[in-house]
Write a structure and sequence with these properties.
- The chain has 187 residues and is an alpha+beta fold.
- The chain has 2 domains: 46 residues, no CATH class; 110 residues, no CATH class.
- 16% of the residues lie in helices and 26% in strands.
- It contains 4 helices and 10 strands.
- Strand 7 and strand 8 form a beta hairpin.
- It is elongated and about 65 Å long.
Length: 187
C-alpha cells in the first residue's frame, strides 16, 4: 500500500510523529515537555496496540535481547555484472556492479547496502540518444556513483545525494527498494 503520507507506518495511511522520549521510573516522558506520554488510540482500529520504534543503548537490554538486536545478517542481493539504471533530471544513466552487492541487516533495523565496486557506463538523453561526451568512471559504492554523476553532469544542483534504494532500478524497472522489501533472508 502506498501511503499519501511520508510515514514510517504506511500501512496505517496516517501521518506519524517522531518523539524524543525518556524512559524513567516505568514511564515514557516527552523529553521536551518533561511530561508523561499517554497514548490515545482506538482499540478497534489497533487491536494489537500502537507500534513503536525505540532507539536505546544496546547495554540497556538484557543479554538475551542484546543477542537478538545485535544479530548481523549479510546475504548476496545482486550479482557481479548486474546493470542498474537511474535518472537525474533529463539523463538516464546506467552502471554495472563490479562486485557482488550484499544486504546487511543488524537486529530488526532496515537492511542497508554493502559497499560495492561499480562502474558508470553511460547515459542517454530524454530521447534515448547516447549522451556525449561521456567519461566512464569507477566508484566504491552506488551512493558514491550517484553523487559523482550528479556532481559531474549537474554541478548546478544544490544537493548531489540520493537514496540508492529509491534511485536505482534493474533492467525490468524494479527499484532496489522493491527488491529489498521482497527479499528473503531464507536460503
Amino acid at each position: 500500500m502506498q501511503s499519501a503520507f511520508n510515514s514510517d507506518f504506511p500501512e496505517l495511511d496516517t501521518p506519524d510523529a517522531h518523539l524524543d522520549i525518556i524512559y524513567k521510573d516505568g514511564k515514557f516522558l516527552d523529553a521536551a515537555l518533561q511530561k508523561e506520554i499517554i497514548f490515545e488510540y482506538d482499540q478497534k482500529l489497533f487491536p494489537n496496540g500502537i507500534h513503536l520504534k525505540l532507539l536505546v543503548p544496546l547495554f540497556a537490554l538484557n543479554s538475551e535481547e542484546q543477542k537478538i538486536h545485535n544479530n548481523r545478517k549479510r546475504k548476496k542481493f545482486l550479482e557481479n555484472g548486474t546493470v542498474l539504471f537511474f535518472a537525474i533530471d533529463n539523463l538516464s544513466f546506467y552502471c554495472e556492479l563490479e562486485d557482488d552487492l550484499y544486504l546487511i541487516q543488524v537486529g530488526n533495523r532496515t537492511p542497508k547496502l554493502s559497499s560495492c565496486k561499480c562502474k558508470l557506463l553511460g547515459a542517454d538523453d530524454s530521447r534515448g540518444r547516447p549522451f556525449t561526451p561521456f567519461n566512464q568512471k569507477n566508484y566504491d559504492s552506488l551512493n558514491q556513483l550517484y553523487s559523482g554523476a550528479s556532481m559531474d553532469y549537474f554541478s548546478h544542483r544544490k544537493y548531489h545525494t540520493g537514496n540508492a534504494f529509491k534511485k536505482f532500478s534493474t533492467q525490468n524497472r524494479k527499484t532496489l527498494q522493491y527488491l529489498r522489501d521482497t527479499f528473503s533472508w531464507e536460503d
